Amino acid sequence: MIRVLIADDQGMVRTGFTVFLSSQPDIEVVGEAANGAEALERVAELAPDVVLMDVRMPVMDGLEATRRLMASARTRVLILTTFDLDDYVYEALRAGASGFLLKDASAAQLAEAVRVVAAGDALIAPAVTKRLIHEFARLGGPRAPTVKRLAELTERETEVMTLIAQGLSNQEIASRLVVAEQTVKTHVGRVLTKLDLRDRAQAIVYAYETGLVRPGE
Which residues carry this modification: 4-aspartylphosphate (predicted)? Predict the structure, then answer.
C-alpha cells in the first residue's frame, strides 16, 4: 500500500482527494494537514510515502514545507496547485518535489501520479519541462558551484542524462539511442547514484544548473 498524506488548506479539497484515493486498492490516505507546518508534523508522526502538497497555504506554504521536508525525511512530494505559473514549477522542483500536478487533472491522473512518485520516478510533463527550461534561460548561466561529479559519468550515461534533461521518458530515450528500455533504466539508476540525486526531477535541475545542458540546445 502507498501511504499518502494530503496537505491543503481547503477542507473540501482534502475530502475529495481522500475519498477518491481511498477507493484505490493500492493507496491509503493516512492523514491530512491544513498548512505546511502541520504537514511537517504529520509526516514526522505518520511517515507517509507521498505527500500531496498544495502551494498556497497559511502559516507555511507548500514550497517551504517541501524544502524542510526534503532536508529531513525520505517522503516524496507531489505538488498540487491551481496556479500554472513558471516560478512555482521552478521553485517546487528546486525545493525537492518529485512531481508537479495541476488540480484540474483528472482523478485517474492523480492516482497515477501518486503511483509514479511513490515508485521513485518523477512526474514532469513535457510542458512543465519546457517552462523549467525557460526559467533557467531567464536566470542565465550555471548555478551549481561544481561540476566535478559529472566527470564520473560514462559517455553513455552523460548522453542519457542529457536526454533526461530534455524531458524524454525512458521509452523515448531507448528509441533515440536504439537500446532496450531496461538498459535505459539501468543507466538512469547509475546516473542518479553517481550524482547523488533522488530522481529525474533533481536530474533535470542539476543538468541545467551545472551547464551540462543549456536552454535552447
Answer: 54
User: What's the CATH class of domain 2-123?
Assistant: alpha beta
For domain 140-209, give its CATH number from 3.40.50.11290, 1.10.630.10, 1.10.10.10, 3.40.50.200: 1.10.10.10
Question: Which residues of the chain does CATH 1.10.10.10 include?
Answer: 140-209
What residue ranges of the chain have pLDDT lower than 50? 145
> Residues 111, 27: contact at Cβ < 8 Å?
yes
Residue 140: predicted pLDDT: 55
Which grid cell sits at 208? 541545467
Nearest to 165 by CA among 115, 122, 114, 107: 122
Which pLDDT value is given to residue 199? Answer: 77
Query: Any idea which residue has 491530512 for its cell?
Result: 32
